[in-house]
Specification:
2 copies of one chain form a homodimer.
Chain A lengths: L3 E8 L10 H16 L6 E5 L3 H4 L5 H8 L6 E6 L4 H14 L5 E9 L5 H8 L15 H16 L7 H11 L13 H6 L2 E3 L2 E2 L8 E10 H7 L5 E10 L14 H14 L8 E3 L5 H10 L8 H6 L16 H4 L4 H17 L12 E8 L4 E8 L2
Parallel strand pairs in A: 2-3, 2-4, 9-10
Antiparallel strand pairs in A: 1-7, 1-8, 4-7, 5-6, 8-11, 10-11
Chain lengths: ~375, ~375
């Protein structure tokens, strides 16, 4: 297979976009990415989206969006793997281009969650868990993550305040990102006094329901090199793994096997170890997921994830900066778009275009997108070398 | 890219499966395909499904089903492109194996439509059309196809009875398929007296809401040859194209441009012309779609599709047999599963395992799966040579 590179990126601000439809948001991101790549045509479109069928009464986004952006004759599909839909769409596009089946591909991640009530969104999010054995028993995603966090604190002896820096770091970084949902830093006091949702998870441990769209254009690295418009952002690792869809179905619910597996394969492809990663856009849908993801990917020992937050290792100047543009917590979590936002942000860092959030000398970045409570994990590694 | 072959096939009867869940149906088909292929493990799973999020309150089928069939660590995603979801999943799997990214892949098409009311299913089907410009104006899929058929009859001078043989052929073939939803032939009188749904479409022009699951296992032709369990079924053409999602957005609504484009590319890959196709599993969701598909793929001149039905060219002994195991009309149309059923049936024909439906000396077969009213068309060509 041939090496593939990102040649165009685009995204909308993450917000409650009352004034725009799903189609418009996706179009803004897609056309921005194509303009950035300076291409007027692509050979295929891969759309990451989870809930447009219910939240927007519109499925069939491949045909819908290729039509909308004026390329009705290209190949177009939607890929869904819950909260990891965006990265799954990117990976499908990557394989199509790496294999030579397509020369260029457009990946769009889009989610428009605020057209329906919060209760409807909560129901829709629960379709990522097992309907029979989880959702129908009344457990929500916040509930599942609360159980995990509770157990983690009990098992490894952490206090709730030990997780605070995950939220503080995300919000501090979000303040530097003009496209973030929340562009303000928060204090320890705000974290401690935040509204409790499902103990021990308070509103500062959870990512917000949001609208947004992000897009990238990819082509072979050879073609990308011939264009030389931006510093090359090469994809040097890509892997996906599933795990038991239920939390109770796992031998050790506090170890993200799918994250470990997909990271291990991606490290192998890139020929690097965790210590060579300059920044990590992880899936901080909940604070506990940040800790588990850091451990599974080899940045912390088992049960020691919060140590990286407490010591400031996750800060922009730290050993392994995470959520550099605000992460799911502060940039926002428009579900099917999130994985593509992570990739756009990684490309921004590697192109030196991350503004106030720029990580100095960033050369290798990793993204990890998680579907369900760890049941579908997709890891990518990028390089500007 | 390496050549890829089908090494295992499996499917459930198409029916109203009150006694089985979506998970069970998918599992039956998947495990049957793996048993047929004599493999106990695959590297990735691609699930074609349109409406499980609403009809079964369950999304995230990649993780859900890999878990269910006992392979929780493999890659798993769901692909959705309305009624062409099954073929879209097959094509994604095909590219993953052809590129060498995966050695073996499992494709599952599954739809469980009878857990909710007919009205809910009708609403759900309408999410394949444009929400703003079609569905919200009250037009259903039957309505869109009725408009097309009406216009076609007016434009080219056909009578309603001229379409009868599409239904009669499908039902006659369904009678020979123990997995078909309707296993009985119908008469001209039954066709003419059938309940009208949306003039000129009566109930014998329309495919039935159904439950079912179909699955295939694919690997490289080199590996398949080394196994030599069945006659080799090679994939010699694969192409996809979109078109304007709305019917009114097309210059000529009576010409399926996406079907023409995807067939043209597939013929080119296979190095053949339409006359070399021994049978054609087309997307006869409605009789009018059969006529339009035959024309777009070069089997009839524009406006002459019904001639092939009237002359019996579409019969098992005819020039271009279609719907050989009943088609969408009589085998049934479990939406996201349909494309995979078509592929399973093509493999049965090419392996000489089609029983009473066997087409003599079948060597090259084609499948065409259509999403929306012609807005997403995926064509595959298979060979046993």
């Amino acid at each position: 297979m041939q090496q593939v590179a990102i040649i165009g990126i685009g995204s909308t601000e993450v917000n409650e976009h009352w004034e725009y439809s799903l189609r418009e948001l996706a179009g803004f991101a897609a056309l921005a990415a194509m303009e950035d790549a300076e291409v007027s045509h692509v050979d295929g479109m891969f759309v990451g989206n989870m809930m447009s069928g219910t939240a927007n009464r519109q499925q069939h986004l491949g045909a819908y969006l290729s039509d909308w952006i004026g390329m009705p004759m290209i190949e177009g599909v939607r890929i869904e793997s819950a909260c990891s839909s965006g990265s799954a769409a990117f990976r499908a596009a990557l394989i199509s281009v790496a294999s030579g089946e397509l020369d260029t591909a457009l990946v769009i991640g889009v989610e428009k969650m605020t057209d329906v009530t919060a209760s409807e969104i909560s129901t829709e999010l629960s379709t990522a868990a097992d309907a029979d054995w989880e959702s129908d028993q009344g457990v929500s995603f916040v509930g599942l993550n609360a159980l995990l966090m509770q157990r983690y604190m009990h098992e490894y002896g952490w206090q709730k305040a030990d997780f605070a820096n995950f939220a503080l770091n995300a919000h501090a970084n979000g303040a530097g990102n003009p496209k973030a949902r929340f562009q303000r830093a928060i204090t320890m006091e705000q974290y401690e006094k935040a509204t409790m949702i499902a103990p021990p998870i308070n509103i500062m441990d959870a990512s917000p329901v949001s609208d947004g769209a992000a897009a990238v254009v990819i082509t072979s690295t050879d073609v990308a090199n011939s264009l030389r418009k931006h510093p090359i952002v090469s994809i040097i690792g890509s892997a996906a793994s599933t795990d038991s869809i239920t939390v109770h179905g796992r031998k050790d619910p506090l170890w993200l096997t799918a994250a470990y597996e997909s990271a291990k394969v991606a490290y192998g492809q890139a020929g690097i170890s965790p210590s060579e990663i300059d920044f990590f856009e992880l899936h901080d849908a909940f604070s506990i997921m940040s800790a588990l993801s850091l451990e599974a990917c080899g940045f912390a020992e088992r049960g020691k994830g919060p140590r990286l937050a407490l010591d400031g290792d996750i800060y922009p100047s730290g050993r392994i900066p995470i959520a550099t543009r605000g992460g799911l917590k502060a940039r926002g979590h428009p579900v099917g778009a999130t994985g593509v936002y992570q990739i756009v942000e990684a490309a921004e860092q590697l192109r030196g275009e991350a503004g106030k959030n720029q990580i100095e000398n960033a050369r290798i970045g990793m993204t990890q997108n998680i579907g369900g409570s760890g049941s579908n994990v997709i890891t990518h590694i990028f390089s500007n070398l």
